[in-house]
Amino acid sequence: MMNLQFGAVVMTASAMTGTCHGGTQAALDAIVGEGTPGVIAQVRDSHGTWNGRAGVREPGGARRTVDERFRVASVTKPFTATVLLKLEAEGRLSLNDSVEKWLPGVVRGEGYEPRDITVRHLLNHTSGIFDYNMDDGFRAKYAGDEFDKNRYTRWRPGDLVRIALRHPANFKPGAPGKWDYSDTNYVLAGMIIEKASGESYRQAVERRIVKPLNLTGTSVPEASPELPWPHATHYSTLFEPGGKVRDVTEFSPTVAFSAGQIISTVGDVNTFMYRLVGGTLLPHRQQAELKDTVPVAGDKGHGGPDDLYGLGLRLFKLGKNCEVWGHGGMIPGSATRTVASKNAGHVLTMNRSGDWGDQELEDAVVKTEFC
């Protein structure tokens, strides 16, 4: 049993802004009704901006608000892919460059062919490189009571890669029909960003995305374990189904590096997605590469087995004649989903301050809003 009780203080935003998002608000309410402490969402469409929220920042506390900062987790991946595409547009690298060219000697292990693994393979998860998060020893460091012993551990990107390379390659890079979502791919992508740009990952993201788009609520924390205010308390059961709920708001984001460390707001992520999916952030050639997809094999990560994956963006197949571009993300205490219609005229970003519960309730928010 969980050791915290969350009162479902619900702000029914649809009552204030008309009824066109009433179903979406009801879906948010259902997430809190299941036990998530709080959830926020923002929608932008041709009618303007709608904000939905349900639940609280902490037990007995204030309601969640849409200006809060949160860890976006794997929604970091579209940011990382965009920086690499911008570096390609600047002539600093090619998506067809090998990992060995930029990181000589880094990828070594059973079945790995670093000269055949390209930057593109990293970004669309067709490299075959094992996901370090699937290493049992690594996961154990963040499960249950072990979390507090390791929450402030500072990881170097190379350390995370070496954990992955203890395991054999899943398949040959670019093998037909093969796909496996791996955070290791995006850690390596971040390392390449630093080599090709001559900047830190934080500097590269700030220079090419955060500052040009004026994303004032977005930050790359590097090694800082803190969340900027305002924020909700982040809660987690730490990989123990039905286990006690713990406050995991503070921990070292080095555990995710360029695969999942960015902090943002629902408004900033919507701005980014509007510009990225809408085609006004990247040159035409890189935009085409962004949306050049491969089939998703299996259902690892947010989404379904019929989805397609581009470069840091997933094409979610929600139903007949209903598809959206986006990404999901989960890190201890925070679950985020961002999606945009194909022309980006309709965007939604949501965050819940708990990492347990039925993922289908998140899916319901998206399907209700878009389908």
TrEMBL record:
Residue ranges constituting the Beta-lactamase-related domain according to the UniProt record: 32-362
Family annotation (Gene3D superfamilies): DD-peptidase/beta-lactamase superfamily (3.40.710.10)
Superkingdom to which the source organism belongs: Bacteria
Name the UniProt record assigns to this protein: Beta-lactamase family protein
Originating species: Actinomadura barringtoniae
